[in-house]
């Protein structure tokens, strides 16, 4: 049997506009985004790890949350996202009952969470787990 030795693993997702992704993840969210030699982006995550963001001409937004950001204070995080022009109430109250900012309360059965979209329509979330 062949040796299966992994040196590095990472996740990836597609976008329809790599420049819009660079602006959103780098400037709007303030994350570390580095150009990749293949013309893609490397999103370096706080706490380690990275995600490859690649352009795909026939991109379709993911129907699930592609990235979750654990924050110490969801109220402040959502207020900051809104101040930066990010819409955090993307689901109806019938889907996920939330306050006017889109924060869904876990009520002890899960984290407090708010979802938002990147420019390509992919779903992201901020959540307070502690």
TrEMBL record:
It comes from Microbacterium ginsengiterrae. One of its GO terms (molecular function) is lyase activity. It comes from the Bacteria. It holds the Pfam family Glyoxalase. Residues 5-129 form the VOC domain. SUPFAM superfamilies: Glyoxalase/Bleomycin resistance protein/Dihydroxybiphenyl dioxygenase. InterPro entries: Glyas_Bleomycin-R_OHBP_Dase, Glyas_Fos-R_dOase_dom, VOC_core. The lineage of its organism: Bacteria, Bacillati, Actinomycetota, Actinomycetes, Micrococcales. This is Catechol 2,3-dioxygenase-like lactoylglutathione lyase family enzyme. Gene3D superfamilies: 2,3-Dihydroxybiphenyl 1,2-Dioxygenase, domain 1 (3.10.180.10). Keywords: Dioxygenase, Lyase, Oxidoreductase.
């Amino acid at each position: 049997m062949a040796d299966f030795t992994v040196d590095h693993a990472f996740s990836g997702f597609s976008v329809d506009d790599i420049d819009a992704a660079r602006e959103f993840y780098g400037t709007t969210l303030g994350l570390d985004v580095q150009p990749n030699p293949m013309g893609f982006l490397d999103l370096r995550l706080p706490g380690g790890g990275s995600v490859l963001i690649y352009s795909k001409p026939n991109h379709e937004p993911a129907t699930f949350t592609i990235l979750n950001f654990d924050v110490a204070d969801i109220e402040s995080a959502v207020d900051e996202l809104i101040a930066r022009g990010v819409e955090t109430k993307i689901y109806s109250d019938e889907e996920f009952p939330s306050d006017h900012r889109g924060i869904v309360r876990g009520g002890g059965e899960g984290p407090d969470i708010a979802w938002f979209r990147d420019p390509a329509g992919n779903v992201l979330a901020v959540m307070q787990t502690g």
